[in-house]
Amino acid sequence: MKLNSTVRSIDLSYNKIDEQGALFISEFLKSNSTITSINLSDNAIEAKGALSILETLNTFPTAITSIDVSCNPINPYVSQLFPILLEKQTTIQFPRSYLGDPAVGYISQFLKSNSTVTTVDIRNNQVGPEGAGYIAECLKSNSTLTSINLRDNRIKHEGALVILHALKSNTTLKSIDLNWNSIDSSAFQLAVDAQYSGRDNIPSISF
To answer: Which residues form the signal peptide (predicted)?
Structure first.
């Protein structure tokens, strides 16, 4: 595979890949310049292995634009480094990765001035109202994101309203998924209708 010039996408999900396997993948990517997408979700990759792969992507001239390391036992504190290591990516996928509010804060800070990432998937990550606040601040200044998935977190009604308010100054986001976040759907729909009454370019907001 190191010398292969035709394969563009690799799916290695559900393969019980551990830290040693992740290190092998890291070495492989150093000499491959054609693969653009790699799926490593649902394995047994821990912090050291994940960082090895991400450091390779940031240091070597790979063609990777999308990597999925979700559903791996990655320490949430290590994820603070992910925004720095993913500067070249267009997609951030960390569903079910035990991130929590602090890590989401780092990701949001990174995205404030980022001009490459268009899609973020951080569903099912125990994100609460605090994390929603970080995301809201990001949305006020980011002009590249088009889609964000926050499904199945703990944002609650107050967090959802903070995000909705931030969308007033964002004209590039096309869709946001807030389902399964303990949101008062009737009250939130009224808030959405009031905010976007008579306006064009309304994003798709599911809740």
So the answer is: none
The CATH number corresponding to 75-207 among 3.40.50.300, 3.80.10.10, 3.90.1280.10, 1.20.1250.20 equals: 3.80.10.10
3-state secondary structure of 67: strand
Calculate Rg over the CA atoms of the chain. 18
Euclidean distance between CA atoms 100 and 130, whole angstroms: 10
- Dist CA 94 CA 142 (whole Å): 19
Q: Could you report the average pLDDT of every consecutive run of 10 residues in the chain (207 residues)? A: 72 94 91 87 87 83 80 73 70 84 90 92 94 97 97 97 96 97 96 90 93
